[in-house]
Structure of NAD-dependent epimerase/dehydratase domain-containing protein:
Amino acid sequence: MGGVAHHLLLPHPARLKPLRPRAAVARRGALCCSLSTDAAPAMTVSITGATGFVGRRLVQKLLSDDHKVCVLTRSASKATSVFPASTCPGVTIAEQGDWEKCIKGSTAVVNLAGMPISTRWSPEIKREIKESRINVTSKVVNYINSASASARPSVFVSATAIGYYGTSEIRSFDESSPSGNDYLAEVCREWEARACQVNQEDVRLVLLRIGVVLGKDGGALAKMIPLFMMFAGGPLGTGQQWFSWIHLDDLVDLIYESLKNPTYQGVINGTAPNPVRMSEMCERLGRVVGRPSWLPVPELALKAVLGEGASVVLEGQKVLPAKAKQLGFSYRYPYVQDALRAIARDL
Ligand SMILES: NC(=O)c1ccc[n+]([C@@H]2O[C@H](COP(=O)([O-])OP(=O)(O)OC[C@H]3O[C@@H](n4cnc5c(N)ncnc54)[C@H](OP(=O)(O)O)[C@@H]3O)[C@@H](O)[C@H]2O)c1
């Protein structure tokens, strides 16, 4: 990507505009505390990527609080098997032709769609990793922007990733840090730039830069545990790389809070407050799954299994959630040992 185009796509802070106070107050009332009350009015939330690892848990939480959900999916049959009508009566399932209608009747939109990144990367797959995010985000933003005032969702929560910052063994990053210069940083910049095209005069935008999500049913742990078991449980790579993680329940709470609370706006890092180095992560994981941490899993072996996608576990970044802290967000799992123990209890 050329320098000029690249620059134009950067989500410059000026493009994250504050909501007009009148719109904010009219929609949500004058909340000024850092955490919203649970008495928020019922919402209808349209969600892309709802059938995925994070989306499934988010849908569960919204339904349990009596909100309604529109699952925006590429495949209604897949979504129906994830959310059967018998157990999920509050869910409407929409394939792409019906996304616009759903978005235009929703109070909020959450954008979680994207092709998984921890696979072998070929040029074709790299293109799809990027385009899957950009295309879905553009489509959703166009539907929000073309809605009439009475049908327009008031909040748009769009996922991005801590890959935005690039990687480093020594620096730490918060929301004010600049973007990195590797492939994943470029993907995140373009993904965020598309989300920033939502009409921020009328719609509150939250960009969640998500860290490595820990949960029992998917994400990094589902990939790491088998690798880890295969190599007798040593650190992946040198072990010195940073691992900025978040427990799935905390991430879902952060999304939920972003939907309800008008003080949540702009870029928010979705990471726990205590990132660890990979060696510590693996040692703690070893204790939890009953494998002693032994020899490091060699980089070559990881690359043989994951190809270039191994960079996701071989190189990391230390990302701190300065904004969530400032907003008073309360983590259920601030420390990785507690997060892993809770997950292992459920295995
Ligand atoms: N999990 C993590 O550790 C982590 C870390 C950082 C950022 N994130 C980001 O957070 C979001 C949610 O993560 P997740 O782990 O829940 O993802 P996931 O389980 O991989 O699910 C993502 C969803 O995206 C849709 N999708 C998959 N491939 C697609 C493609 N080629 N084109 C369009 N849509 C596609 C699918 O929904 P349908 O089949 O229903 O359309 C899928 O259920 C993702 O964008 C991810 O990049 C996740």
Q: What stands out?
A: Residues 123-145 form the longest helix (23 residues). Confidence is low (pLDDT under 50) at residues 1-37. The pocket of NAP is lined by residues 49, 51-55, 73-75, 78-79, 112-116, 128, 132, 136, 159, 161, 210, 212-213, 218-220 (CB under 6 Å).
